[in-house]
Specification:
72% helix, mainly alpha
């Protein structure tokens, strides 16, 4: 027998959910055209992120123009003043302050210009605050990754033209690091949707898309996204097995098999041999190898930070100082290929504190709301970004920088009002 009080509570909850649904539908019908345009524009940004920089850049320009011309920027920019907006403001201002004392203002100016990524934080937050949901963004992103994965697999199979082994779909030369991380993020999102799906065909669709993207990931000539996949594979298996605590051990054991399947790829095995070989060669003084050059760049950043701990070398200052201390015959290097070392070398202790704050906010918000898709997405992306930031300055790259900025839009909107998981 159900207690009458429980029945009454359930009835009240059902009425509230029905009222919320009616209000959401009424809001959708009365949304201004500019807000709808911005919503579809953001969906396009999420779709093109894993596809190609050219259409992504065009979409960025159009969305920014619509945001300014509609007047929404006057209201949305004010979101930076709420409690979770300060890291965004610091990341927008710090590169321009660092430009004032940089030894290489030409490179520094190029780096400072990339602070415009953070404008999309306010655009995404504004779209969510007026009532649109995050799921359309994530599904657009998954669609973009799936499209790119299919094109890449077609290239590997010889069905689609490919200029060389570093041309991955339409992502451009040397874009494999970014693409591998975006693919891993998409697989994580699909695992969450698989766990939440109620219908068998929904689960089958999620499983099929995961297989396509996993096949693509295993053939990419990189180790950043694959390393993130290996570390987060227990989470994927946990979702696939139904998000039950009693299955944690089984999920971990099964993830080992999944990682083993990844290592069946000759590409992955080749990368592992390359890591061992490059490390041994660097110890013998050989710098010009893929990983050896990373070691060299990292050591340079540490030395610069030790000499300039209070304010760093400024925006672009790393390139200037490295040219002065680099060994003869080594090429010019603009940044240390590591997000955390870049912030330390460029801005000293303030840079270190800024990047810690930048990471802590979305991780905290994501953990508190991990059972919702947007909370899980924040946790997943920041975890992948952490792994990728070890071998690349992720906050400076176009795709990762944009996705980080747009993810912060979800954070700002969460601080304004929740939930954000509704559909349009």
């Amino acid at each position: 027998m159900v207690h009458p009080a429980v029945k009454k509570l359930n009835h009240c909850l059902e009425e509230k959910l029905e009222l919320d649904l009616v209000q959401r539908r009424m809001t959708e019908k009365t949304r201004p055209g500019a807000e709808k345009l911005l919503f579809y524009g953001v969906c396009a940004l999420f779709f093109f992120l894993p596809v190609s920089i050219s259409p992504l850049s065009i979409a960025e320009g159009l969305v920014l123009a619509a945001w300014v011309l509609s007047g929404r920027f006057l209201k949305d920019a004010g979101l930076v003043l709420q409690k979770w907006g300060w890291p965004v403001l610091i990341m927008m201002v710090l590169p321009w302050i660092g430009l004032l004392y940089s030894g290489d203002t030409a490179i520094g100016f190029k780096f400072a210009q990339r602070s415009d990524y953070w404008l999309f934080t306010f655009i995404v937050a504004g779209v969510l605050v007026v009532g649109y949901g995050t799921e359309s963004f994530f599904k657009s992103f998954i669609a973009g990754v799936t499209f790119t994965s299919l094109v890449f697999l077609g290239q590997v199979a010889g069905l689609i033209y490919r200029a060389n082994q570093y041309e991955d779909a339409f992502f451009g030369k040397w874009g494999h690091i970014e693409l591998s991380q975006l693919t891993t993020f998409s697989i994580l999102l699909l695992s969450f949707y698989f766990a939440e799906a109620k219908k068998r065909w929904h689960k089958a669709l999620c499983a099929g898309l995961m297989l396509v993207q996993f096949a693509s990931l295993s053939l990419l000539l990189t180790d950043a996204g694959q390393a993130a996949f290996i570390l987060l594979s227990p989470v994927i298996l946990y979702n696939l097995l139904g998000m039950k605590k009693k299955r944690l051990k089984f999920a971990f054991a099964t993830s080992l098999l999944l990682v083993g399947a990844l290592f069946l790829s000759p590409v992955v095995r080749g990368r592992m041999r390359e890591v061992i070989s490059d490390t041994a060669n660097y110890d013998r003084g050989v710098v010009l190898t893929p990983l050896g050059f990373h070691y060299y760049a990292w050591e340079g950043a540490v030395k610069i930070f030790e000499k300039h701990p209070l304010a760093g070398a400024g925006t672009g200052g790393y390139a200037y100082l490295m040219d002065r201390i680099k060994q003869s015959g080594l090429p010019h290097i603009a940044q240390p290929q590591n997000t955390f070392l870049y912030m330390a070398a460029s801005y000293g202790l303030p840079g270190i504190l800024a990047v810690i704050w930048l990471w802590a906010v979305p991780l905290g918000v994501g953990w508190k709301r991990r059972h919702a898709v947007y909370g899980f997405a924040l946790l997943s992306f920041m975890s992948i970004l952490t792994v990728g930031s070890i071998t690349d300055t992720q906050i400076m790259s176009h795709q990762s920088g944009m996705l980080l900025a747009m993810s912060y839009g979800i954070v700002l909107a969460t601080g304004k009002e929740a939930p954000l998981a509704g559909n349009v």
